[in-house]
């Protein structure tokens, strides 16, 4: 902490008031103390106020001590002797000190290692990311490693009876070669003469221009490592044998279905989203009665807003239409959990959305309502409308439902289930 002190001190700036700062040693003008430019004054502890005269700068004294260009700069600084010295923290936009900004200054940043960077992504389940992290650090306990630590074990590959090392399981084994070759051919990649796992992944990742995190080109080798490891463990601990083409057992698909509202109640499904770096936001909403019959559906292009604003706007416009249709009992369903929490917990929200939230609350005050979350997969109709919103200029009313939307509404009305499988549901540990 003390070692960091001298580093952070360099980012503190002072604003002169009564001039109680050291003229040569404090950071009261520019980005460095004056002593750096005038080292002959290093022993002087004179205060800034010594250069004041009747509320102004004493130009004669300044000229005696400094060069003309520095004097010119100082003369631009207004003197306010009614104020005391005020400290400013340079790294933040409001001048206030934050430990986070201080940490950013003192921390030692290593350059990003793309291999390790690529393993943390929403497309990769966390358990797999941790496995890969251990793999690339060579921390996976295969038999040769265990033997080197004194464990007496049979150390043979389950597939070919060769000595089992991590490199063998992941690369040298004929089974591994078969898997790598299959995918390498697919991506037109040629990886030869590799001597370590790190070299394999490095060669694969940089074999084409597609080095963006989360891209299929990046994900494939990572999943190959994972499934080779799963295959080895299944063979070793479950006696399932090792096969290059075994399909992983998948969990049961999750079932999402749309529920009809109660008799006399209406259901409003809304969805909003934003694209192109918040340059285009759109929303969709539809109201159905207890039989699942559509009362209205709208799509709307909101313009340049972020996703949260789009969700709130979709809800707000939907509520206005409900009030117009004299809806008194309403069940609101949306997939934006954050909005539901805001409504449930009475959040004030940020300044950016404060008026929008207030308008929504005003609408809700005249309706008997409940609001709940629905997975995007169950909110298909509103999701579809929201996506269509980008294609329209402003508000677009659907008087007749057709195409895909008609199909979705039919499924919802008849309580037919939609089945979805999320890769994030896969668990292997
Ligand atoms: Zn083998």
UniProtKB/TrEMBL annotation:
Q: Please provide, alphabetically and separated by semicolons, the GO molecular function terms listed in this UniProt record.
A: nucleic acid binding; RNA-DNA hybrid ribonuclease activity
Q: Which InterPro entries match?
A: RNase_H-like, RNase_H-like_dom_plant, RNaseH-like_sf, RNaseH_domain, RNaseH_sf, RVT-Znf
Which residue numbers delimit the RNase H type-1 domain?
A: 269-388
Query: Which residues does the UniProt record annotate as the domain Reverse transcriptase zinc-binding?
Result: 97-180
What PANTHER family is this protein classified in? OS05G0353850 PROTEIN, REVERSE TRANSCRIPTASE-LIKE PROTEIN
- The identity of this protein, by name, is RNase H family protein
- Look up and give the organism this protein is from: Theobroma cacao (Cacao)
């Amino acid at each position: 902490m003390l070692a960091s002190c001298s580093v952070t001190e360099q980012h503190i700036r002072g604003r002169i008031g009564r001039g109680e700062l050291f003229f040569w040693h404090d950071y009261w003008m520019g980005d460095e103390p004056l002593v750096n430019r005038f080292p002959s004054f290093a022993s002087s502890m004179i205060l800034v106020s010594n250069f004041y005269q009747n509320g102004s700068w004493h130009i004669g004294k300044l000229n005696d001590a400094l060069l003309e260009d520095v004097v010119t700069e100082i003369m631009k600084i207004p003197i306010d002797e009614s104020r005391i010295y005020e400290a400013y923290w340079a790294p933040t936009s409001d001048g206030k000190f934050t430990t986070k900004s201080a940490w950013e200054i003192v921390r030692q940043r290593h350059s990003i290692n793309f291999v390790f960077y690529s393993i943390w992504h929403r497309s990769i389940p966390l358990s797999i990311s941790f496995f890969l992290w251990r793999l690339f650090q060579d921390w996976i306990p295969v038999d040769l490693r265990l033997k080197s630590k004194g464990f007496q074990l049979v150390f043979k590959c389950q597939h070919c009876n060769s000595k089992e090392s991590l490199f063998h399981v992941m690369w040298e084994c004929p089974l591994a070669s078969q898997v790598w070759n299959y995918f390498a051919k697919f991506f037109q990649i040629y990886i030869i003469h590799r001597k370590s796992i790190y070299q394999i992944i490095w060669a694969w990742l940089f074999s084409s221009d597609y080095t963006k995190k989360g891209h299929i080109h990046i994900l494939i080798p990572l999943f190959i490592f994972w499934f080779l490891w799963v295959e080895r463990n299944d063979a070793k601990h479950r006696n399932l044998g090792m096969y290059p083409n075994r399909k992983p057992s998948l969990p049961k698909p999750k079932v999402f279905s749309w529920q009809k509202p109660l008799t006399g109640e209406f259901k409003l499904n809304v969805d909003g989203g934003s694209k192109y770096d918040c340059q285009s936001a759109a929303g969709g909403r539809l109201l159905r009665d207890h039989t699942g019959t559509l009362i209205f559906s709208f799509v709307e292009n909101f313009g340049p807003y972020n996703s949260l604003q789009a969700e709130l706007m979709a809800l707000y416009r939907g509520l206005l239409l409900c009030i117009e249709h004299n809806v008194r009992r309403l069940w609101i369903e949306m997939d934006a959990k954050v909005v539901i929490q805001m409504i449930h917990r009475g959040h004030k929200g940020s300044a950016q959305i404060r008026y929008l939230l207030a308008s929504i609350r005003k609408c809700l005050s005249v309706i008997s309502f409940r609001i709940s979350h629905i997975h995007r997969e169950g909110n298909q109709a509103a999701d579809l409308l929201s996506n269509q919103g980008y294609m329209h200029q402003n508000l677009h009313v659907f008087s007749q439902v057709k195409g895909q939307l008609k199909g979705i509404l039919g499924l919802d009305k008849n309580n037919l289930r939609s089945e979805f499988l999320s890769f994030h549901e896969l668990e292997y540990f």
